[in-house]
Amino acid sequence: MANNTEMNHKAERIALTRAIEHEASETAAWTGRTTFNARVIRAIAEVPRHLFIPGAPPPGIAYANRPQPIGLGQTISQPYIVALMTELLDLNGGEKVLEIGTGSGYQTAVLAEIADEVYSVERFADLAASARATLAKCGYSNIHMSCSDGTQGWAEHAPYDAIMVTAAADGAVPHALIEQLKPGGRMVIPLGPRHGPQMLTVGLKDQTGRFTKHPVLPVSFVPLVSLGKEG
């Protein structure tokens, strides 16, 4: 029975990659990416998304191309968005990546399938503990986690080759994150207010330290807030 269940999950993951590839072609006018890198698609196919959603949902829900609630007002992002944000980092393997907003750990796992080391920051202690347990169960040894204020990044391990933020910053990109991005690095971050229009944005830091950004796709994310502030 366990083998049959795993085979079903594997088939659902393969079907999900096809749905993502189809959506990539449909949104190419926005993103400039008609197809996604094989590394990204392979990562989506490998990560057991059902383990990162509370309540052990059936494959039809766990591998549907849509977001799912994970508690505390947070969500696990739509798989297409997870794939797109990973794609936009242009990872080749070997990078050190900072993720702001671990959530359930699903995006973290996708990053860990490609990058050499992933440093992930989550402000909710319960989510951090749950994600840490799930990631350990999946056998990842290249993920390092901190329960702290994501707007401050994780300076101890900076600089980072790439930074991904999985919650929307209302206003400017947090200065600490720009500072912790390596020259030549890339950042993917949604920008915009909680109830207003948000735009998935790519930031680039050149060799002189100048940070520029450009919009990619309208999105909807939970807000990025500091510890001690309302979420």
Describe the overall structure.
With 231 residues, this protein is α/β, with parallel strands linked by helices. The strands form 2 sheets. It has a 7-stranded mixed beta sheet with strand order 5-4-3-6-7-8-9. Strands 1-2 form a two-stranded antiparallel sheet. The longest helix is centred in the first third of the chain and has 25 residues, at 2-26. β6 (160-165), α8 (175-180) and β7 form a beta-alpha-beta unit. It starts with a helix and ends in a 12-residue tail after the last strand. The protein has a domain at 67-219: 3-Layer(aba) Sandwich (Rossmann fold). α1 (2-26) packs antiparallel against α3 and α3 (38-46) packs across α6 (106-114). It contains 8 helices and 9 strands. The protein is globular, with a radius of gyration of 17 Å.
